[in-house]
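Hello support,

Our group uses your service weekly, and this is the first time we've seen a run hang past the timeout. The protein is HTH tetR-type domain-containing protein. I'm not sure whether the cause is the sequence or the server load. Input pasted verbatim:
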Amino acid sequence: MREQLFDAAERVLLRDGPNALTSRAVTTEAGCAKGVLRRRFAGFDAFLAELVLDRIGRIEARSAALHDSTGGVADNLTGALTALFESVAHGPQ
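Update from on-call engineer: The timeout came from a worker crash unrelated to the input. Re-ran successfully.
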């Protein structure tokens, strides 16, 4: 559920902009009750902080993988960007 909420937040942010990023918009996009977000996080600010930390972790992991890769530059960047924006590409679950 945590990833589902994070992915929904990314879609709202990219589609509608930062002013539209609310707890209601996230839970609606995720297709779950608003209480789900409240039960899993101390508040919406805590949710946003966890989202940022999660996405930073993803970027760091992809960066390390790129450094260790022996593939071509174009293939490596395509793979990295696809993985980074995977949640946006798949839409609501």
